[in-house]
Input
Amino acid sequence: MTLADGVRQGQQRAIARAISLVENDLPGREELIDRLYPSTGKAVVLGLTGPPGAGKSTLLDRLLSEERKAGRKAAVIAVDPSSPFTGGALLGDRLRMQSHALDPGVYIRSMASRGHLGGIAGATADAVKIFDAAGYDRVIVETLGVGQTEIEIAQLSDLVLLVLVPGLGDEIQALKAGIMEIGDIYVINKSDKDESARLRAEVDYVLSLANPTPERPVPPVVMVSALFDRGIDDLIDSIAGRLQRYAETGEIDRRRRLRLRRELRQQLQSKINDHIERKVEIDRQMDQWVERLISHQETPYALINRQIEWIFKEMDRS
Amino acid sequence: MERKIRILIAKPGLDGHDRGAKYIARALKDAGYEVIYTGIRQSPESIVRTALQEDVDFVGLSLLSGAHNELFPAVVDELQRQGAQDVVVFGGGVIPDSDIAYLRDKGVEAVFTPGTSISAVIDFIEANRERVVSR
Ligand SMILES: Nc1nc2c(ncn2[C@@H]2O[C@H](COP(=O)(O)OP(=O)(O)OP(=O)(O)O)[C@@H](O)[C@H]2O)c(=O)[nH]1
Output
């Protein structure tokens, strides 16, 4: 039996191996994904992002319970940063979700962002396909909301939940700067704290300045306390409501097409790049080029244009 | 690219605090490994299921309460039952010398007692790198 067969049958070990394969970008990755692709397209992908300590993992634990009550199989991909210095990572998001560890309908996988080309997005996109093909109805991707990653993850998801908490300061600045435009639902966690009412008012205000369209209406704001299990029903209703609306307006399809477009473009670029690097051994030439520039023997654009002409000629010859 | 080594640090049993386990987890992260940490009071079954889902190469068990002779081998056995005997298990905690041979015999490949330096753990992992990477 092939790895792809094992994944399609939902075997835990096969899924685990398959994800490691894409994560390490090992030989066999492309064949695996191509074999699984016909079985994908059924899972709904949710993104969950927010600043450190916002309570994302605690909230996920509650959401998993709700998914299971609704009879859905759910997979979580929890992405945490790797240390840029050592390459190591401490992946602790599971800690708050271990109550689901023995549930055969829940699969949790931690991923370190590592440093690889194309970022974490490529590996995560393939991991989503693996869970989709393995029959998980929901795939939830959890990331730390600190910049570029939120955007990359948003582009993987059908719907993005942005988790905010009172007392973190610069959130409202970020909101105004537009980074947080990616949220489809704003979740204010720790509603058990007094300051949460003020945060809500601020978020409402910022959202009132947005330009809603029929496809993307003003996002709902939901107050929850993950710790005390309050407001979770409202959140579940909001998710269902948004998903239904996005399905009706064609927004989900639009996002999936965009996602494919981006994936294709990225793959295309990286393959073309690899091909050129291999063919003309750019690394080997680079030292020489740098020398010519630093000694002012040549100017940068003249050099690069001449090299490009040469690269194309080299490629034509082969 | 070098394949990353993934390690699950888990605490079976009823100990209420996990300073030691967290220390090890952080030190291994600093040594460049990907470390998954799941907190206290994990059953052997949930440890093994976590190890399988996370596709780890090593499981490090930490225990202070004295139930290591039951719980460590229980994890090894459960891994075997799940067809994952290739995952390397090691243990740490307050473990009398007299129990170490027994645990080794039961498939716990290394036992680290208090005072062991972290570099001993890293040496152990590196000594097994080839084996786990080629599994
Ligand atoms: N008061 C209060 N505390 C909460 C609530 N939800 C989570 N917390 C606490 O907030 C802390 C962080 O929770 P996590 O779930 O680990 O947060 P996270 O966003 O996953 O954290 P990172 O993994 O660091 O990004 C924990 O101590 C939780 O117990 C809540 O609704 N109210």
Q: What stands out?
A: The CA atoms of residues 117 and 257 of chain A lie 23 Å apart. The interface with chain B takes residues 12-13, 15-17, 19-20, 23-26, 82-83, 86-92, 94-95, 98, 101-102, 107-110, 112, 114, 116 of chain A (CB under 8 Å). Chain A has two domains: 3-249, 263-317.
